[in-house]
Amino acid sequence: MKYKSQKVAYWFFGLCMLLFALQIIYGFIMGFARIGMDGLHDFIPFNTARAVHTNLLVVWLLTGFMGAAYYIIPEEAQRELISVKWAYVQLISLAVVGVLAIVGYHFNIWEGRKFLEIPRELDFLVVVNVLLFLGLILGTLFKAERRTTTALVLSMGLLFAALLYLPGMIWFDSQVTDSFFRWWVVHLWVEGVWELIMGGILSYLLIKLTGVDREVIEKWLYVIVGLTFLSGLLGTGHHYYYIGVNKIWLIVGGIFSALEPLAFLAMALFAVYMYRKGEKSHPNKIALFWTIGASIVSFIGAGLLGFAHTLPQTNIYTHGTLVTAMHGHYAFWGAYAMIVLAIISYALPNITGRKLYDSTRGHMAFWLSNIGMLGMTVAFGVAGVAQVYMERKMKMDFMDVQNEISIHFVVLLLCATLFTTGITLYILEFIKYGKPTDEALVKE
Ligand code: HEM
Ligand code: HEM
Ligand SMILES: [Fe+2]
C-alpha cells in the first residue's frame, strides 16, 4: 500500500542530503587544520568547525528520522497523514532553525556545551518545531485503525527523544549539575531512545525486504527495546565517573554500560537472521545492504568500540581523547547514518516510481563510504592511543602531543576522501531519482 502523503518524506530526505554534505565540509576544515593547513582560522576556527560539524550531524540525522516517520507511519497506520500542509510548514521551520543556529555559531553565538551548543532562546523554536512534528505523527496514529508495534516503537522513540531534550534546556549555575543533565540528552539519546528509532526503522525495513512475518520480526523488537532500557538507562553512569558526583556511579556505570553492547548485538543478529530466514528476495539490494550493514557496523562502532573505553579503569586514561572521536565516528555512522541511508534507499524508488536500484553507482557508494569510514576510524584510533600514551602516561604537554600525532590526520584525510567519494555517489544517485510523482503513490 502506498499513500500520497508519503511524498513529504522526499523533501525531508533532500534537506538531509544537503546538511550531510555540509557536515562533511566542516570535517575537512578540521582535518586540514590538524595538519597545519588552517587558512580559514580567522573566520572558522577549529572550535567553531567542531560545533558546526557535530550539530549538522545531529540535525541531518533528525531530519532523516522525521522523513522516515513521514514515510513509514502512513503505511503502517494505513491512512494518509492528518495534514500535509503542516508537514511542509514543519520542514521549512526546521530548516530555518538549523540555518539560524549554524550561522550564529560563526559569530560566536553559542553555548560551550558539547553537542548542545544551540543557545537556549533558539531551543524554544526547536521545541515548537518538534511539537508540530509529533502532533502530525501521533495524530495520524491516533486516528488510524491499525497501530503496529513497529509504528509504536518508532513514535515512542521520537516522543521520548523530544522529552529528553528538555533537561538540556534548564539553566544550572553548577558545572557539575549542568554536566549531569547534559548527559540525559546526549547519552540517553544515542544509547537509549534513538535506539528505539533505529529498531523501529530496522524492523520496518526487514519486514519489507525479507518477507519474514511481522509477528516474528516484532517479537525481536520487544527484546531489543528491553535490552536497550535495561542497559542504557543506568549506563549513563559511564559519563559520571570523574565529573564530581557520587562514586557509586563508578560501579553502576561500569556494570550497566558494559551490558549496552548486548542491545546492538541483538540488532545485528536480528537483521542477519531475518535476512537468512527470508524467502522473498526483494529486488532493492542496495537498501538491503544498507540495512544489514547498519546493524553490523553499529555493533562494532557502538558495541565493541564503546566497550573499549567504558570501564572506569580505561576511561580514566582515554576520556576526552581521540579514542572518543574514533568511537563517536563509527558508532554514529553505523547506527544512525547508515539506517537513514537505508530508509532513503528503500523509499526513493517507491516515491519517485523509478526503479534505479542495483546500479553500480549505488553499490560503489555503499562500499567506498564504508571502507573510507573504517579507515578514518582506524586513523582516529591510532592517533588516540598514541595521544593517551604520550599525554597521560608520559605526561607530555598537550600541544606537543597534538603535534606528534598530526601525521595520523594525513591518513584520516585520505580515508575521508574515499568516504566522501562514496557519499558523493550516493547523493548523485539521489538526484538522479528526481522528484516524487503522484502516479508512483497511487494505492496498489
Ligand atoms: C549508537 C550508539 C552510540 C553513539 C552514536 C555514541 C557516540 C558517542 C559520542 C559522540 C561520544 C562523545 C560524547 C561527548 O563527549 O560529548 C561518546 C562517548 C562515549 N561512549 Fe558512546 N556512543 C554510542 C554507544 C556507546 C556504547 C554502547 C558504549 C559502551 C559500551 C559507549 C561508550 C562511550 C563512552 C565510555 C564514552 C565517553 C568517552 C569519554 O570519556 O570521553 N557508547 N559516544
Ligand atoms: C569526511 C569526513 C569527516 C572528517 C574529515 C571528520 C573529521 C572530524 C574531526 C577532525 C573531528 C574533531 C576531532 C577532534 O576533536 O580533534 C570530528 C568530530 C566528530 N565527527 Fe567527524 N569527520 C568526518 C565525517 C563525519 C561523519 C560522517 C560523522 C558521523 C557519522 C562524524 C561524526 C563526528 C562526531 C560525532 C564528532 C565528535 C567526536 C567527539 O565528540 O569526540 N564525522 N570529525
Ligand atoms: Fe554514553
From TrEMBL:
Residues 8-444 form the Cytochrome oxidase subunit I profile domain. It comes from the Bacteria. Keywords: Electron transport, Heme, Iron, Membrane, Metal-binding, Respiratory chain, Transmembrane, Transmembrane helix, Transport. It is found in: Membrane. It is a multi-pass membrane protein. Signal peptide: none annotated. One of its GO terms (cellular component) is membrane. Pfam families: COX1. GO terms for biological process: aerobic respiration; electron transport coupled proton transport; respiratory electron transport chain. The chain crosses the membrane at residues 12-33, 53-73, 85-104, 124-144, 151-172, 184-207, 219-242, 248-275, 287-310, 330-352, 364-385, 405-428. One of its GO terms (molecular function) is cytochrome-c oxidase activity. Belongs to the heme-copper respiratory oxidase family. This is Nitric oxide reductase, NorB subunit apoprotein. It comes from Flavobacterium haoranii.
